[in-house]
């Protein structure tokens, strides 16, 4: 177990990840080294490398331990085995060490995101993981988006890059808490509580990775009625990633979701013309947001699942 990766270990971990993704999800953008090594918000990570007798690194795993109130029971697994070393017990050995560490940290649930492909799905099923959520990954071609969306009456648009402006921080945090009603299937997800300090800290994490965070919000008086967030990874030349999109319950039914997303597309075209597509994911049962995205032109390009292991 490694608390903090050295530069060499980070390169080894990243090389296993790169080989695994290239084999299983060709064309999928690769996370950067900074994204691997930058601490996440309200969490810490433990790492493992599987070394073979000849010095080859055959597998890599990490355990993200959430420390925030409402999710102290939860841990998140990432596990990759180099394609040349699969079906030799590497994944099983890594998983055993991860589970021991999760037990030592008094976690009751271990979750892992797995593409809807082999061997990940069968690996989880054979080791008592339960499939608790299915995600639909969607792609939007920005050149095909209809930007003619009427402004909703009584709302005004406010956009920013990076950290939320001070005068909106409290209202933005209140809107963030509406994420607690998002569909999570049967996952033992817990809850997140947001305040002004925490939303600022989230933006700093993104900045520390070298990524760009863009936010568009709908204001109703002094209230943040909804917002959408986009992240452009450091060095990315093509694809932006959708982060949270929220409409506060009291303001739903006015078309704010599509209006905000369209405003973000307009901003990307003007300020980041090299970005030509957005990737988002929605829980399979989040029918409302899927409908909003499909009306904009998002189309499904793959599926993934969240698996969960109950830890005794």
From TrEMBL:
It holds the Pfam family Acetyltransf_1. Residues 1-179, 177-312 form the N-acetyltransferase domain. Gene3D superfamilies: 3.40.630.30. The keyword Lipid metabolism does not apply. This is N-acetyltransferase. It comes from the Bacteria. Keywords: Acyltransferase, Transferase. It comes from Lentzea flava.
